[in-house]
Amino acid sequence: MPARSWDAEVDVLVIGGGCGGMSAAVEASAAEADVLVVERSGAIGGASAMAGGLIYMGGGTPVQKACGFEDSAEEMYKYLVAATSPGADLAKIEAYCEGSLDHFDWLVRCGVPFKSSFYSGMLSEPPGDDGLMYSGGENAYPFNEIARPAPRGHVPQMPGADKVIGERGSGWMLMKSLGEVAARQGVKTQCDTRANELVVDGDGRVIGAVVRSFGTDSVIKARRGVVLSGGGFAFNDDMLALHAPRMLGHSKVGTDHDDGKTIRLGQSVGAAVKHMDATTAYAALPPLLVRSIIVNASGSRFINEDQYFGRVGEAAFYREEGEAYLVFDEEGFESVPPEEIWGQRPTWVCETIAELETEMGVPAGALEVTVDFFNRHAEHGEDPLFHRDAKWLRPMRSPFGAIDLRQKPGPTSPEHRDGPGYSYSFFTLGGLHTSPEGRVLNTSGEPIPGLFAAGRTTSGLPAGGYASGCSIGDGTFFGRRAGGSAARST
Amino acid sequence: MPARSWDAEVDVLVIGGGCGGMSAAVEASAAEADVLVVERSGAIGGASAMAGGLIYMGGGTPVQKACGFEDSAEEMYKYLVAATSPGADLAKIEAYCEGSLDHFDWLVRCGVPFKSSFYSGMLSEPPGDDGLMYSGGENAYPFNEIARPAPRGHVPQMPGADKVIGERGSGWMLMKSLGEVAARQGVKTQCDTRANELVVDGDGRVIGAVVRSFGTDSVIKARRGVVLSGGGFAFNDDMLALHAPRMLGHSKVGTDHDDGKTIRLGQSVGAAVKHMDATTAYAALPPLLVRSIIVNASGSRFINEDQYFGRVGEAAFYREEGEAYLVFDEEGFESVPPEEIWGQRPTWVCETIAELETEMGVPAGALEVTVDFFNRHAEHGEDPLFHRDAKWLRPMRSPFGAIDLRQKPGPTSPEHRDGPGYSYSFFTLGGLHTSPEGRVLNTSGEPIPGLFAAGRTTSGLPAGGYASGCSIGDGTFFGRRAGGSAARST
Q: What residue in A sits closest to B372 (Cα-Cα)?
């Protein structure tokens, strides 16, 4: 890299103003570093500000205790290892569980409000301002046998009436708080500014970045370190084609700046990537899901429907290639609270399962066998195949309905892979390989001097599976560590 | 990179002496380049020399024609796109199919012998010296409906009596021929030599490599280009943990030099990687498999058992997390030719399916339902669920047996991930992102000047699925292109 003339100098340059970058900025500035955050869009917040805002924390937080739940770092660890395997990052999970109470306190000190009330409903986030919920199937098979169940989805308090799902939720409340603390601590923020290149010195140390704002490049020196935290790559079809081709053409969660730019910046200086194929996908809404059976193209069930709806979606998408159906009876459908049906309508309604098979295109008799087996055991409150909880078990009776979750960009029709497959929504979980301290590692597993990362730009807690609250959870937790490590780096 | 004093200079430096590297060397030397192959082990050959040696070719080769099979580049393309989706590399597949007849001729000119006889048995490679076989389920559902079936697994002729499966097969014959041609064309080969570092000039062009032989480093200048072709990464647990964690602890196919070193060399200079999660896995031997049903932990079938055994293995491993069983009856087991049973023994033998369920730990009644449904339709030569061919359909009758394919490094017990899970054998399919010309691409999709790659160091034809013959097929085909591109690069 030729010698540069610097347009600006800071101690720590943070690229990306979502929850990872802002947590890094807060912690670096608390360590007396002079910090600049550059953000591509017109305001800080990133995908976090649009999210439901769940933060996965446990081990006995004040909210858990006030709501009457016992928890420990050990049980949280057992759950997270099971839920994120294969590929669980044991060192990160250990640090995360041991540091969870401290992290809760830090968020509270940052002004993030949590109401000590438990949401026991089935929606994916509380409709009101409750502060705690189950968010990863901890209380369903198999996790309820692996670790003592406790709800760990902590939700920043925001009056339900102020929420606009998918646009302004509790994640907005979190980012508002982090932004205010950062500003108070003197963090500078420069929006509408995109980082295009890292600057590396002759020894391979990252010492700055070339950023562009309204068509003008400037070169910013980072005396102590650069923190990459620009989100995932769900909105970059070229990267999806390389790493997660199944997702092409599906509905995505995030902002269109989730194009993997900061992952590629890391790779350009020799960073390793990790679990780039990992994504989470979800399809059906849980209030109807737990009152249905979900079956594949052979009419067979493949998971307990009271599991975390993201896990059900992953099973439907990965195992069954999206060829799945929700089957229910009238009584089940009608028992979903009206405000929780969200416009879902049966694709087909039939008097008999045999008719439904014909409509669905499932081989004659195959779904009948499944429903008979399910009903025979549901009668006794049992689900020998998948251990769905007895409270969600009763025999299904005519009339029946089904919702078609199939999507057609399948393995045999790549020419349709950008087609209308919108039953599933997903985001990416893979990214740069980082240490638990937030250092970016090269392909020999050694830290790249001067380079740090956090959030969905990295491979964090979720790898082989996901739980709601893990993205903002590890974004803020390891964002703090990345910012602190950068501030202390010389 | 500081200025170097060169210990040697060549036009093209090839790193790795397997089928990709040797094909590159042959083609580069044919283009008048001065070529050096460095190989880590004591002799050229790599994993290719241990392999069954199948080469996936079609479009109407002389062997296909002599055996009475019609084929075309179009049908071959349709099959390969379907079999390797999602993530199929359409540009590579197109080049591969269009160039297949020429590639066959090239191999023959290199002295690779092919006998014009068709092997119609079920083993994964011909026990004798037959030259052609189905090797990817082309004649089974769903591929038989997607493209006109033709056998495309071409096997270099080697007398069956000379074969030692897994040690010296037809792949040995291929590598012997390529090695002889290379030597005749003046290619230099330096064994026991490992490449540890690429040398890059100030403009980012790869201009050589630092190699180590018996403890001594030398720096070799490559005037035109470096070709990376050092195999996959099945034998590198750190890389498996990053990219394909399910595979940890399982039996691997390859050599212990398949540690991803040449992939990491590419990454160290900014190369993109592709489909790093992709692997192929197989478990059951086809002669018994087609006479059994394969069921999951719920006792349900999940694929037609007459599909390519690699595809069945991938379904069992990925979809069912390895929790699969082969279930057969005495008549089926006894009808496997004795020389094709390979020591497989039932894990359990029972008079009734109900007893078998108890032994297997499948919920009572679940397997009975599956066998009843299968038998009812098999009676009429039908398999409405998975379209297994009628010639492999007949009702199963007492006594029954089953083979346990479960393996226990599962998603809930990462501490056992290096445990004894040896039912499945696999190798990796992901690697460097290359163009159809064999150029290594960076994360912006642009060629890295002076850098080329081929074989399992790259992501080649197989991505979302595999067929036998694709590895040596694309290794030799795109190896030639990489070598030719390097020789013409200035």
A: A369
Distance in angstroms (rounded) separating the CA atoms of residues B450 and B204: 9
A245 and B464 within 8 Å at the Cβ level: the answer is yes
What is the 3 state secondary structure string of A322-343? CCEEEEEEHHHHHCCCHHHCCC
**End-to-end CA gap in chain A:** 20
The per-residue pLDDT for range B408-451, each reduced to its tens digit, is 443 333 333 333 334 788 899 999 999 999 999 999 999 999 99
Q: How confident is the model at residue A103 (pLDDT cuts 50, 70, 90)?
A: very high
Residue B419 has a pLDDT of: 34
- Asked if A267 and B269 come within 8 Å (Cβ–Cβ), the reply is no
Query: With an 8 Å Cβ cutoff, are B273 and A273 in contact?
Result: yes
Smallest Cβ–Cβ distance between A369 and the set B264, B274, B369 belongs to B369
Which chain B residue has the Cα nearest residue A262? B443
Which pLDDT belongs to residue B342?
81
The complex's ipTM?
A: 0.91
- Given a contact cutoff of 8 angstroms between Cβ atoms, the answer to whether A206 and A448 are in contact is yes
Q: Are A273 and B363 in contact (CB < 8 Å)? A: no
- Of B369, B384, B413, nearest to A373 by CB-CB distance is B369
Task: Give pLDDT tens digits for A40-79.
Answer: 999 999 999 988 899 999 999 999 999 999 999 999 999 9
Mean per-residue pLDDT over chain A, rounded:
93
Using the Cβ of A185 and the Cβ atoms of chain B, whether some distance falls under 8 Å is answered with: no
Is residue A419 less than 8 Å (CB to CB) from chain B? Answer: no
Question: Burial letters for B93-121: b for 16+ Cβ neighbours within 10 Å, e otherwise?
Answer: bebbbebbbebbebbeebebebbbbbbeb
The tokens for A380 are 């006794």
Structure token digits, residue A357: 């098979």
Tell me the shortest Cα–Cα distance from B237 to chain A, in angstroms.
Answer: 12
Whole-angstrom distance, CA of residue B469 vs CA of residue A257 = 41
Contacts of B124 (CB under 8 A, 6+ apart): B52, B282, B285, B286, B309, B468
Query: Which residues of chain A make contact with B264, given a CB cutoff of 8 A?
Result: 443-444
Minimum-distance CB partner of A443 among B268, B320, B414: B268
Q: How many residues make up chain A in this entry?
A: 490
Contacting residues for A109 by C-beta, under 8 A, at least 6 apart: none
CA distance A197 to A208: 9
Does the CB of B464 have a partner CB in chain A at under 8 Å?
yes
Residue A447 CB neighbour total at 10 angstroms: 17
Contact predicate A265/A259, CB 8 Å: no
Name the minimum distance, in Å, from the CA of B132 to any CA of chain A: 25
